[in-house]
Amino acid sequence: MDTTIRPATADDLPRLTTIYNHYIEGSHVSFDVEPWTLEKRRAWFAKYAETGRHRVLVLETDDGVVGAAWSSPFRPKEAYDTSVETTIVLDPAVIGRGLGRLLMTALLDELSHEDVHRAYAVIALPNDASIALHERLGYRLLSIQDDVGRMYGTYWSTALLEKRFE
User: Fold this and answer.
1) How far apart are the C-alpha atoms of 143 and 114, rounded to whole Å?
2) Residues 101, 130: contact at Cβ < 8 Å?
3) Phi-psi region of 153 (alpha: psi -120 to 50; beta: other; left: phi over 0)
4) Which helix (H) or strand (E) holds 129?
5) Backbone Cα Rg of the chain
6) Model pTM score
7) Tens-of-pLDDT digits for all 166 residues of the chain?
C-alpha cells in the first residue's frame, strides 16, 4: 500500500471530520459529546499552519485520507507556548497496520525541528493500543486523571503522557 504523509488542506476537512466523528459517535475516546460540523472543523483548521508548533498532517493511501495527526497548544497561557498536545485519529479500517506509528513519527519529526520542548498526549482510558503506540514513540506516563470526564452517563479516566524534546 502506497502512503503519503503531508500537511492537511481545506479539501481534507470533510474526510477528517468523518473520521473524527466516528470516535465521537461510537466511543468515549474523544471526550467530545457532539459530532463536529464541517463549519466547526473549518474554524478549527484556520488556526493551523503548514509549519511551526501547531500543524495538521494527513495520511493518504490509495483509498484517500485515512488518518490525521496534529499538534495544538497544550494550555492557553504564553508560558506554555513551547509545549504542545498531540492528537491522532485513524479510519478504523486501517488500525493495526502500523500507519498510526508512521503518522505520529512524521509529526514528531517535524516538531523536533521547531521550538517545542514537550509534547503531551491525553488518552481516554481504557486504550492499551494508544498507550503502547505513544510509549514506543518515546512518551512516558505522567499521571492518570481518575474519572475526569463524563460521557454517555459514565465517568472515564485519562492518562497524561509526555515526550521530551531535548
Assistant:
1) 26
2) no
3) left
4) helix 128-136
5) 15
6) 0.95
7) 799 999 999 999 999 999 999 999 989 999 999 999 999 999 999 999 888 899 999 999 999 999 999 999 999 999 999 999 999 999 999 999 999 999 999 999 999 999 999 999 999 999 999 999 999 999 999 999 999 999 989 999 999 999 999 8
